[in-house]
Amino acid sequence: xxxxxxxxxxxxxLQVEFHTDSGVVRAVNGVSFDLYPGETLGIVGESxxxxxxxxxxxxxxxxxxxxxxxxxxxxxxxxxLLELNQRQWQQVRGKKIAMIFQDPMTALNPFLTxxxxxxxxxxxxxxxxxxxxxxxxxxxxxxVGIPGAEKRxxxxxxxxxxxxxxxxxxxxxxxxxxxxLIADEPTTALDVTIQAQILELMKSMQEEFxxxxxxxxxxxxxxxxxxxxxxxxxxGRKVEQSTTREIFRQPRHPYxxxxxxxxxxxxxxxxxxxAIDGQPPDLLNLPLGCSFNPRCQFVQxxxxxxxxxxxxxxxxxxxxxxxxxxxxxxxxxxxx
Length: 336
What we know:
The protein has helices at 51-58, 86-92, 104-107, 114-125, 130-143, 149-152, 162-174, 192-209, 220-226, 244-249, 254-261, 327-335, and strands spanning 9-20, 23-35, 40-44, 67-76, 79-80, 97-100, 180-184, 212-216, 229-234, 237-243, 311-313, 319-321. Mean pLDDT is 85; it is low at 332-336. Strand 7, helix 8 and strand 8 form a beta-alpha-beta unit. The protein is an alpha/beta fold. An 8-stranded mixed sheet has the order 6-7-8-3-9-10-12-11, with helices on both faces. It has a 4-stranded antiparallel sheet with strand order 2-1-4-5, covered by helices on one side. It has a domain at 9-37 and 45-86 and 226-335: 3-Layer(aba) Sandwich (Rossmann fold), CATH 3.40.50.
């Protein structure tokens, strides 16, 4: 897929911290990436790696306090969103950047009908009157595959199944045809049939509107099918980024290798799955050196002292990784 040469979104050295009774948690620690019009960027990593906090920052939704954006820039078409006040943010959220939240049952207001929740955003951003907004909402619900949309629009969230609630969330997110759509695990807890339908819906929406998508997920199968590039996060940092093809073909960070080895594949049995040893780190007490070193099968003495910088590999495909070891060579040594 070809994309514009100019990024629509640039994240530069983003730092987000939370002040707790136990100390300061650096949930996002110096993350940078670009997003281009019409592309899908996948962000993967275990729970607590900083995926969702990164993207809540892009929406101006970090609760302050206890949260604080301690540094960095979020440039949307050159404008630093972190400098906006709340009134200015309201002009961006939903209209320019929209988000499909992870749990539609908690994201949707149980006391309001789907109609009330859908028309609010279009009346605000598209200056539609109530009748126009209702007609637009029915059309969007049809587009996301909800049967009998003209009747279902008057229902409450609890009257929809999990898959249908997720479709309502997607309808709400795409109502104003945003430039950027952030999808925070939109297919979690859905059966595979509904999951496939939702992924197909997002692809068709992207083709129709040219939307750039940030796709947050644990599911590497979904990443392989929908994402153009992948960013891997661990302990609040970006540890690897490249095209999806390159990440799956030759990962350069031991954590990425671990994620790929622990994902089920159609050509392997259950016995071939390899779990990553240990637990995700405590962000209040990160180990010296590389944060992944207690769990890494390729660890060397240098990994216990030095924090690996993010370096770009030379070659046709941009490939960044933060590892002091050449694990491709190490893997060859292990196999010989």
